[in-house]
Design goal:
This protein is mostly beta strands. It contains 1 helix and 9 strands, in the order βββββββαββ.
């Protein structure tokens, strides 16, 4: 017998309330199909914050770029996290391999050749 828990992935969700966080499937492309661009990326994009919904079309806020995107409901997956220990924006930045630079400690290399320059950041 299966006992449902709040983090049960088999449970179907009929709708997502505003201000909840979701993960989204990648777009279906002719070359790759539905999936990440390379095998090192996660299978789902996000997390995104739900801003608004009209029928099955939801408006999502990208937490990294602060841009709005309209996505159909069938591409969503719930994003479960502990609000006391984790910020969804940090997970979204890690998913895109973007990091916050606090301070540039130094650099080396020829400024005329940007590909050969090294930066030391904190």
């Amino acid at each position: 017998m299966h006992v449902a828990t709040p983090f049960d992935m088999r449970k179907k969700i009929a709708s997502f309330p505003e201000e909840s966080c979701v993960l989204v499937d990648y777009d279906n492309t002719a070359v790759k199909g539905r999936g990440p661009l390379n095998k090192l990326m996660p299978f789902l994009r996000g997390p995104y914050r739900v801003i608004n919904s009209v029928g099955s079309r939801y408006t999502l806020l990208d937490l990294v770029t602060n841009k709005h995107t309209d996505v159909l409901f069938h591409r969503f997956h719930p994003f479960f996290y502990d609000k006391a220990r984790m910020d969804p924006k940090e997970a979204a930045c890690r998913n895109r391999e973007e990091y916050k630079v606090e301070k540039i400690l130094g650099h080396s290399g020829d400024p005329r050749k940007k590909s050969e320059m090294n930066s030391f950041v904190e």
